[in-house]
Amino acid sequence: MRTASVTLVAATLVFLAAVSVYYYFIIRAAPLFAPPRIVSIHKGDSVASAARLLRRSGVIANTLGFIVYAELSGQAGRIKPGDYAFKGGEGTPEVLRHLVNGDFLIVTVTIPEGVTVHQIGERLEAAGLVCDNVFDQTAFDGPLIKQLGLGALGAEGFLFPATYHFSPLASSDEILAAMLERFYSVLTPQVENRLFELSLDARQLVTMASIIEKEARVAGERRLIASVFYNRLAVGMPLQSDPTAQYNYAGEVERAAAAIRVRSLFNTYTIPDLPPGPIANPGLDSIQAALYPAHTPYLYFVARQDGTHIFSRSLREHEQAIARIKHDSDQRRSPRS
Q: Model pTM?
């Protein structure tokens, strides 16, 4: 009888010790942190590496306890890389759940079609990612630009407009690499073959696409606008595109009527060819229009008030179109009798 009692007491003590250990190393929550502590789990990190990082930051109480719990729960191989913010007050199960669910910090930035590198930098700065002047420097003269041989004009035109998801700790180089990677994924073998047919290189493609992007207000007219520019190049006519004259890396700031009178390498009123580089970062639709322009006899176009254009084959037709648009505008402005 006495032996049974001793055994029961011993078992109870072992059970209580096990519960205490489980609570102390697994369940016990870390203190609350102010501000939250950031832990970066990198791709390829083992559960042991993650545990050491978490323990070093004070997020978990014990490295071995975290590893054992992760292994026994079958979740050791399901940890997702990312930057995690921990506010404290959580035990190992809750911490591990965040890592498995991928509750990492993320900043979403949408880059629209037709903006410049500098304007992209402004958006990134507004999102709290980088200083725009730092991004400018990286995009025009950074290591990646030199490796890709993009030259003095840098990444202008090669940053693909899209919605991106970045770590809040992402560097300018990492952000630039993500945008360039999206652009170069567009340059498929089919596109490369098409460039060969058009006798264009990648820079000339994005230069043409950027002009189309800035001129086109209606998606369905992109290929028509492209045809006008290609037709002009074929007969040696200047493109005479207002956005090229207005271009500067900060974005369009000068009125077209004044800009076209200023001589510059980008002003296609004063140069007989494509400008030396893109005037914006074009989207896929404009790139496709530059690759596959419509077949038309048009050499001119002029914008209506609603953003659509009238396309013309001759200067005479073009002048008539301008006069018609002016007449319609005057009619709208004149008071009704």
A: 0.81
